[in-house]
Write a structure and sequence with these properties.
The chain is of the alpha/beta class. The chain has a single domain, classed as Rossmann fold (3-Layer(aba) Sandwich), CATH 3.40.50. Helices cover 34% and strands 20% of the residues. The chain has 9 helices and 7 strands. Strands 3-2-1-4-5-7-6 form a 7-stranded mixed beta sheet, with helices on both faces. Helix 3 links the parallel strand 1 and strand 2. The protein is globular. The termini are far apart. The model has no long low-confidence stretch (mean pLDDT 94).
Length: 222
């Protein structure tokens, strides 16, 4: 969803280089240097206003988080949160999620989050869905061996499509939720996005899957 441009957003982003990476290509294979440690790296593709990634960063200070979004305005709202919370384990990238291999080396990322991605419901737009096979191939490339993708959505059609795409790609669906918020155990640690909180208040069902890539040996053993 497009949001109205925020006055001063470009200047705000440019003035906070400690959190906003203007030349992410330069850190390909060197993100541990950027963060100053060897902690695991989790990325969120389509991070929106940053409620999820900043919540996760607070909850897990020993994990490095990278928020990725094409919209500068929404990233500026994420920056607001990072600055307010003073989170040293968060970096923001204003880039296209389809070009992740330009910014991350093979095996450099430990986990990929996809939250409330655009469903692109028309068939002709299938290739734009973040769970389309080409995107899955990109995630597999940058992830560690047997890395995971955690996906949340309120869109049943997109969820069913994604389960099928992941299974067809050869991923293992480790855990599937058809009503995430009905799981009181998971709810204790669940960090909601802004959309999730909004939809939850309306009683809308939230779907979630934890899917894992397999190496060739693992595929052969099934």
């Amino acid at each position: 969803m497009r949001v109205r441009n925020r006055k001063g957003a470009p200047e705000m982003m440019a003035a906070n280089g400690q959190y906003v990476v203007e030349n992410p290509e330069a850190f390909r294979g060197k993100w541990s240097e950027k963060f100053g440690n060897d902690n695991p790296i989790h990325i969120e593709v389509g991070s929106g206003k940053g409620g999820f990634i900043t919540g996760m960063a607070q909850q897990n200070p020993d994990i490095n988080y990278i928020a990725i979004d094409m919209q500068l305005t929404v990233l500026s709202f994420a920056l607001d949160k990072v600055l307010h919370l003073d989170l040293p384990n968060v970096q923001l990238l204003h880039v296209d999620g389809s070009s992740l291999t330009n910014y991350f080396e093979a095996g450099e990322v430990d986990l990929v989050y996809l939250n409330f991605s655009d469903p692109w419901p028309k068939t002709r737009h299938e290739k734009r869905r973040l769970t389309y096979k080409d995107f899955l191939k990109t995630y597999e490339t940058i992830l560690v061996k047997n890395g995971q993708v955690h996906f949340k959505t309120d869109n049943r059609g997109l969820f069913e499509y994604s389960l099928g795409a992941m299974s067809q790609y050869g991923m293992v669906l480790n855990q599937v939720w058809l009503d995430l918020h009905a799981d009181t155990v998971f709810a204790e640690k669940n960090v909601m996005t802004e959309y999730e909180a909004k939809f939850s208040e309306k009683g809308q069902v939230i779907y979630r899957v934890e899917a894992q890539f397999q190496d060739e040996m693992s595929k052969m053993s099934i």
